[in-house]
Every structure is written in C-alpha cells, then in structure tokens.
Amino acid sequence: MATTTFLSNATINITQGATTYDLSSESNAVSVMVGTDALEATSFGDTGRVFTAGLQNVEVSITMFLAYGGSGATSEVEGALAAMVGKSSTLVISPSGTTESASNPEYTITGAFLADFTPINSTVGELATVEVTFTGGTWARDVTAP
Known about the structure:
Layout: E1 11-16, E2 19-22, E3 27-40, E4 51-65, H1 77-84, E5 88-94, E6 106-114, E7 129-135, E8 138-142
Antiparallel strand pairs: 1-2, 1-5, 3-4, 4-7, 5-6, 6-7, 6-8
C-alpha cells in the first residue's frame, strides 16, 4: 500500500453573514470530525445489533493566534470570533491549499454553530492563542478542482 505524506498547510475560510474571513495565517491547528449518528434498527429475529445512519455529525476545532483590532473591528481574530458567537457559519477547510483534488479534499460545513470562545487567554512570555469549536451543521466533501 502506497503512503503519501505532506507538510500541513491548511486553509480555513469562515463565512458568517455576508463576510468571509480567511483565518489560515492566524491558525496553527485544525481538526475536522465528520460522521453520522448511529440509529439502532435492530428488529426481532436479528442475532446482533443493527444500525443505520441518522443525522450528520460535525465538529471542527481550530487553534488560532489571538489578535485584536480597533473598536468593533472584525478583521482580526478576536473581532471575527466575537461576531460569530451564537450564530451559524459556513466553514471551508482543506488540508493543503485551495485547489481540491483526491489528495487535497475540501470540506464545506454549512450551518456550523459557535457557542462560545475565550476572548482573552494570556500567559506571560507566550503567544496568546484561543481554541474554538464549531459544532453541528451539514458537511460535504469535494475533490474536484474549480
């Protein structure tokens, strides 16, 4: 079995309302978990449990470097995340660049919800980071180049 390795260079674009934020250069870690709920469909006579797919399941965790803009600014990480709290957003994430292919699938999560985030997370002598988790929504995988 052939194995391919690559240097991570994920792209992270989040659209909330009419604004799209490219947070790739402000992030240093991202994980995308997709799946479906397992619904039990076992019936009388079955000799083992039987399951069928239910609703889609999504969780996206992103670690970002905190940055602050001017009053009400949404161009920096803190302002962008503050605008997303309590709302649904669309996330488009690829593992390495923006050109989709079989070796660089793009995941689009529509209706992802950000319940909360930590706007101030400071430690002496360290870069300030924040980890946010988007949950819910629906996901689609794309491997076709635009």
